[in-house]
Amino acid sequence: MPELADLAPLLLQKERATATFDVATCINLVLGSKEWQGRMDHLRGLVMEDPVLNDRDMIYRNHKERYEFALAKSNAFVKLLQKHSITKPDEQQFIYYLLGEPLPIDVHRSMFIPTLETQMDEEQRAYWVPLAREAKILGAYAQTELGHGSNVQGIETTAVYDPATQEFVLHSPTLTSRKWWPGGLGKTANHAVVHARLTLDGKDRGVQAFLVPLRDPKTHTPLPGIDVGDIGPKIGFQSVDNGYCAFTNVRIPRRNMLMRFAKVLPNGEFVKPPSDRLVYFTMVRVRVFITYVCYRYMSFVVTIATRFSAARLQGFAPGSKGKVEVPVLSYENQQLTLFPLIALSYGAMFTSRRLQGIYDTMLSQLGGSMDASTCPFTCCIMIFGVFLDKLDLLNQLHATSSGLKALLTTEVGDGMERARRACGGHGFSASSNIPHLMQEFIGACTYEGTFDVLVQQHGASLLKRLAKPGPAQPNSAMDLFSFLRADATAKCAATTPAQLLEPDVLLRAFQVRALKALQHAARNRASMHGITRASMGHAESVFLQCFFDGVIAITDGPLRAVMLQLWQLYALWRITLHLGEFRADDYLSATQATWVQEALLALLPQIRPNAIALVDGFGLTDFELNSAIGRYDGDVYRALIARAANEPLNRTDVVDGYHKYLQPILASKL
Amino acid sequence: MPELADLAPLLLQKERATATFDVATCINLVLGSKEWQGRMDHLRGLVMEDPVLNDRDMIYRNHKERYEFALAKSNAFVKLLQKHSITKPDEQQFIYYLLGEPLPIDVHRSMFIPTLETQMDEEQRAYWVPLAREAKILGAYAQTELGHGSNVQGIETTAVYDPATQEFVLHSPTLTSRKWWPGGLGKTANHAVVHARLTLDGKDRGVQAFLVPLRDPKTHTPLPGIDVGDIGPKIGFQSVDNGYCAFTNVRIPRRNMLMRFAKVLPNGEFVKPPSDRLVYFTMVRVRVFITYVCYRYMSFVVTIATRFSAARLQGFAPGSKGKVEVPVLSYENQQLTLFPLIALSYGAMFTSRRLQGIYDTMLSQLGGSMDASTCPFTCCIMIFGVFLDKLDLLNQLHATSSGLKALLTTEVGDGMERARRACGGHGFSASSNIPHLMQEFIGACTYEGTFDVLVQQHGASLLKRLAKPGPAQPNSAMDLFSFLRADATAKCAATTPAQLLEPDVLLRAFQVRALKALQHAARNRASMHGITRASMGHAESVFLQCFFDGVIAITDGPLRAVMLQLWQLYALWRITLHLGEFRADDYLSATQATWVQEALLALLPQIRPNAIALVDGFGLTDFELNSAIGRYDGDVYRALIARAANEPLNRTDVVDGYHKYLQPILASKL
Q1: Among residues B259, B670, B405, which one has the least CA distance to residue A105?
Q2: What is the distance, to the nearest Å, from the Cα of residue B538 to the centroid of all Cα atoms in its chain?
Q3: In the predicted model, what is the mean pLDDT of residues B511-530?
Q4: Which DSSP symbol is given to B99?
Q5: What distances in angstroms separate CA A342 from CA A110, A298, A307, A422, one per listed residue?
Q6: Which residues pair with A159 in a beta bridge?
Q7: Would you list the DSSP string of A375-393?
Q8: Which residue from A minimizes the CA distance to B137?
């Protein structure tokens, strides 16, 4: 028998041989056209050849070193785009992802420029946007403060208009009013869009946005009245200078207020914005985008963990009595940990596409002509004023995307950690890359709305709908609230175990569970927990529906069959996790509940032959995964040894501190 | 109204004023005698005055820097003990904990020395133990290999005896046989206890332990045939040099095998050990110790999160209509996240004490006279040979502590992350110290047996017991298997919602659930998932019982009353989380299930007035918590600002890379 290190690749090959579908077909489904895949290969090649951009040594660096290296990467990134004339947003985005860590110019690209574009008036845009696009200025987006995150209405920074000089005076009146968290604010940006409470002639005019110069354009030193810096290390985003900024009576010209909607005239007169709904649109787009991020990170981690589980021999499964150890993937618990996470990844992919599709359809209905592939914040130009009659769909999408953001970030965050633990000690090691991926993802559980804020928004919207359902959307694919028409008094109709695998039976169970939870919440309005269950019940029902619709639309028979198993597995798994809810009012009987459990376990060995093919189907390369234990070829042990050789401590046989610190200990008594 | 930064401390004071019990009484329960508390204060003062040991800058360092600074800390730690003649193990341990990160000499203290003491024969001990105690040698404990972790029988390193020279030849025959993970092995240790498969005259004699010199005692350079180094960064333990080591035909004298039990005579004859059970004893002790670690870390994190939630104003709770924001702790979801984790902490404390008590009682029954306060590995000397008739209790404790280790590390790991998310963005920041605490703890989910290995051990033992129950333990406090005598056909007897709060009703529900799960597993032996549920069901039942017994033993009435509420909350919470299991065969009816949910939510406002007092009751100091947002005085915002000022990036206004990397971008087109 070959030794373990040589056996591991053979084990992965063996797993691949048992697949019942064509992996390339799956990759086409996930990545898109062959032409685009070829383009990706080309762009990836450029990055892998670039001595700065191909860097993967982030795990050896502290926050300061990560940030400093990310400056070099920013520089190299911009130069690469220029050198190869890469101007398409999706191509730029693809390259950016390949870097494996966010850059300090991230917010400049994804939020600062779009905010100028969408919230400045024409004259302002003509002046500022080219400066930002050509990076003559580098910007941050300064909304969150030390004292207030999710509740924007609590912002304390003030902007008082001085008609005498036609200037705004930006000021941080309290300790907690300093801006806190904005990416790139600490050390990188020389300008920021600052959200502050506007006061005109003593009157509160709400939170408005202002463009504030922070640093001298030549020397980069902070301007007078600006106290700016980095807030220190975090779990993730160590390569970014999340910053703080306090203002001491900083004066900016009147025209530095972003005046597309609200305006202040020279004499100090206030012109109200026609509606506050615009901010809604931006939020929806961001939340839809985050479902994509969830798909992305989950697919990375579950690819790593599943491949490792197939290549890793350890112990003997219950029942197996041979002398040969079995792959960890042969353990039922390992399958029950990983297979639902493979399903979660594909489900998040389909759900993200559905939401994006609804968003784009809505925009096009409204006469907008936005490029869907640009950043999540470039939206809602041109459409203002015409969409107020389309609010129903916007409200549905806003509510549902809020609930799905809460659900999926939680599920993916928790799922990554379960997958990590399923890799034992090697999942604890940075060489697996799972720690890094988790650290970069996990902020999504709290940024752009914490779980509790989102489920309340979602739940409140559902409660309104329950009271006043409104007409069904004519296009069923866009009808996110169809569960309201379920029968909450029904019982599950399955009379045999096999019927519990039927899509209709499963989808209906989730709809009824959601509707029951919502009705319960309506009867107990003071209970936030009840609202939370209604929100999660609905989000899960929508997820299951989007996932299912994605599966049945697959034209390739063998792939569709496997994906359907995966979908069934996911549905049954969710039922067992929340079995109490599905058993409310005995919707599922005690007997049906045991069928669910049995059906779930019975699916595991059916999916097993396709497990590796399913993660291969995400089409992720070794360069992107950057994992010693998640390699395509399964050569995990040599890769782990090669990684350890790179550890800076191994550059010398004897560490510097030995003679100073260890030897004196050796000569003393412990 | 005062500004937010000044309001935060007042909010905490207000919370403290509503407590219905005396916090000092709780602290006495947790920490022990006033005398010991005074001693702790004194020792803490010594550490806080020491310029190296009071260091808290670990968050700014990468792995190499963490390790190098930990060498300095090791040195300062030893010197402090010497200077103040601190020799008592519990005092040394207390100081060690105060350092806030493990040191490279950790394994030398906790595993290397105890292994020499317990597994060497008298002559060997006389020679080696003083060398180790006086740190003339520094050791590692090298068991785990690259290819094998939890399955010790898979170890590949070989030790072949050469009678001609009376030496063992240690060798790493494969890539995967290299030792991998041992703490201190990479750069610190100059010796290691190495586990290798012994071959005598071509015969396999099982895995034995050998003392192997690794580095030159003077120059510290690796000896010939030794390839040793650090395995690289990890999620936690960055201050420790977890290492690898490969052997190329390394010869050691015959007497370097640890020969207390198994022996090899000069002519190569093998003397078998009288039993293999000893390793059991060590494992039990370690697993009991880990329940203490769980209590410790959970109490740290929930103290931080609960205090922050009381000091943090944000938004408006459902129903509240004022203009004044409410503390996050006023949200039902926040309470439902944090209060069960306060309960988990106290429950883990009581459970850990119970297990330790059983362990100590067992030892004393066996005629041992071990000091319970020494490290978890100094055990089982003196008792060998007399405990075989006490195996029943040992088996119970071994099985139960395995299940509890799996349960509690999972619950605490997950609970820490939930508590972190409940702190929003500030929980993502290193200033909260939650990230550091999580990183240092989370390894416990996989080290010393992964979840899946432990539940199988535990479950297998339970299945044996189900088939052959054996007599009840005469002392009910030591009877960990009492659930076997429950009535699995019974239904829950509660006929009113109030009855669901009765301890008997709750305890019985957990016993029946465990027994049902075990019976189910017995009928479906091939299902690892079924065994897992049996294991977790039993572990949870034991946890609830230990927690309850700890609560009713409290003599102070007001404290006992609050702790009982906390216990009820925890029991009800666990039922709602696994409601499907408690509803199996309709043990709980649909109506009873709704009562459980309602009773749980009804307890939250009852516990709320005591929430801060309950976390104060853990008696943790600000120095230990090391958290800007978890401070006793609630002055969280000033603390956050002070932390940010320490960030190394803030030492200069303009970062070094600006002119090299940013300016060229500013002059180019993005």
Answers
A1: B670
A2: 20
A3: 96
A4: T
A5: 29, 8, 12, 14
A6: A170, A198
A7: -TT---SS-TTT-GGGHHH
A8: A666
Picking from A413, A425, A528, the nearest residue to B332 by CB comes out as A528
Domains of chain A as residue ranges with CATH: 113-273 (2.40.110.10), 282-482+531-577+598-616 (1.20.140.10)
The tokens describing B230, both together, are 């650090």
Q: CA–CA separation, B365 vs A416, rounded Å?
A: 46
* A523: Cβ contacts below 8 Å, ≥ 6 apart: none
Taking residue A175's Cβ as centre, other Cβ atoms within 10 Å add up to 18
Average the pLDDT over A212-240 and give the result. 97
Q: How far apart are CA A151 and CA A134, in angstroms?
A: 33
Q: How does DSSP classify residue A51? A: T
CA dihedral for B508, B510, B513, B514, sign (positive or negative): negative
pTM of the model: 0.96
pLDDT band, residue A377 (cuts 50/70/90): very low
- Three-class SS of residue A234? strand
Using DSSP's 3-state secondary structure scheme, residue B616 falls into helix
Measured between CA atoms, how close is A110 to chain B, in angstroms?
A: 13
Which contiguous run of DSSP H or E holds residue A180?
Answer: strand A179-180
The 10s digit of each residue's pLDDT in B413-441 is 999 999 999 999 999 999 999 999 999 99
How, if at all, do strands A191-200 and A158-162 pair?
Answer: parallel
Single-letter amino acid, residue A75: N
C-alpha distance across the termini of chain B, in Å? 47
The 3-class SS string of B272-304 reads CCCCCCHHHHHHHHHHHHHHHHHHHHHHHHHHH
> What gap in Å lies between CA B191 and CA B216, rounded to an integer?
10
Residue linked to tokens 């599943």: A306
Residue for token pair 């063996």: A14
Above 80 in pLDDT, residue B565?
Answer: yes
Q: Are B80 and B46 in contact (CB under 8 A)?
A: yes
Contact call for residues B68 and B59 (beta carbons, < 8 A) = no
Instruction: Report yes or no: B333 at the A interface, CB cutoff 8 Å.
Output: yes
B333/A529 Cβ within 8 A: yes
Report the DSSP beta bridge partners of residue B193. Answer: B141, B211
Per-residue confidence (pLDDT) for residue A91, from 0 to 100: 96
| ipTM for the complex shown | 0.95
Task: Report whether A655 contacts B74 (CB < 8 A).
Answer: no
**Which two three-digit tokens encode residue B418?**
């939930």
- How far is Cα B609 from Cα B587, in angstroms, rounded to an integer? 34
Contact A287, A405 (CB under 8 A): yes
Among A231, A582, A604, A660, the residue to mutate for chain B (most B Cβ within 10 A): A231
Query: pLDDT grade, residue B378 (50/70/90)?
Result: very low
User: Given an 8 Å threshold on Cβ–Cβ distance, is A68 in contact with B428?
Assistant: no
Nearest by Cα to A345 from A306, A299, A300, A304 = A299
Half-sphere exposure of B390 (CA within 13 A, CB side): 21
CA distance A618 to A349: 10
* One-letter amino acid of A197: R
Contact B230 A647 (CB under 8 A): yes
Active centre residues of B (catalytic): 448
**CB distance B232–A59 less than 8 Å?**
yes
User: Strand, helix or coil at B193?
Assistant: strand
Q: Is position A144 annotated in a ligand binding site?
A: yes
Tell me B197's DSSP state. E
Element (H, E) at A209: strand A203-213
Question: In which band, very low, low, confident or very high, does the pLDDT at A373 lie, cut at 50, 70 and 90?
Answer: very low
pLDDT of residue A430: 98
- Condensed to tens digits (0 to 9), the pLDDT of residues A303-335 reads 999 999 999 999 876 666 667 789 999 999 999
The two beta strands, B191-200 and B158-162, are parallel
Q: Quote the tokens at residue A317.
A: 């499964």
Chains A, B: CB pairs < 8 Å: 423
